[in-house]
Amino acid sequence: MGKSSAGKDTIYKRLLEDGGLGLKKIIPYTTRPIRDGERNGVEYFFTDEDTFQSLKEQGKIIEDREYHTVQGLWRYFTVNDSQLWAEEGCLMIGTLEAYGRLRTVLGERRMLPILVEVDDGARLRRALDRERSSREPQYREMCRRFLADSEDYSEERIREAGIERRFVNNDLEECVKEIRGYIEAEQAPDLPG
After folding, report:
1. Residue 127: pLDDT above 50?
2. pLDDT tens by residue, 1-35
3. Rg (CA), the chain
4. Of the listed ranges 44-58, 93-107, 160-174, the one predicted with least confidence
5. CB within 8 A of 72, min separation 6: which ones?
6. pLDDT of the residue at 35
């Protein structure tokens, strides 16, 4: 987890590719439009509001976040499906709020939080570069996300979530190496991931 453009997606992919860790990905759901280069069932399960409401009525939504974006309402959510109960270690990208709710459902021993941080100036440059390379840049939405991150990842919320360890992504290779060591050190025979 971490603020937008902190490098979560890149780190996530590196950790999944690391055969020595043996991690399986958990794919969250969203109602937001698919971005350039994304594929359904890879980064997210892209769905619609009706499906979200149906899953909610069935009691299958563990946690959800809604964002009132410049393009309308977007939801991100985790479904209580077979992905969450896999025996092997799992990895997912989420928010502090998602971490808290999943920890309640799955149990603290099954959760290992990884908070990725980077200087706000570097994050802004990365976000701007990503938008510039997009077929249809969404600069207003980029700015909204950037500003919302200050509240979503405030020191108070990080403390409330019980996050004690942070990983600074100034050097991608070093950051991945540090996270890998953290995962290996924390894994135990009865702790899937």
Report:
1. yes
2. 999 999 999 999 999 999 999 999 999 999 999 98
3. 17
4. 93-107
5. none
6. 87
Long-range contacts of 61-69 (CB under 8 A, 24+ apart): 62/101, 62/102, 62/105, 63/97, 63/98, 63/101, 63/102, 65/95, 65/97, 65/98, 67/148, 69/32, 69/141, 69/144
Q: Which residue has the tokens 């209580």?
A: 80
CA 17: distance to chain centroid?
17
Tens of pLDDT, residues 144-160: 999 999 999 999 999 99
pTM attached to this predicted model: 0.83
- Residue ranges of alpha helices (H) inside 31-189 are 49-57, 96-106, 120-132, 139-152, 155-160, 172-186
User: Could you tell me which of 24, 42, 31, 32 has the C-alpha nearest to residue 82?
Assistant: 24
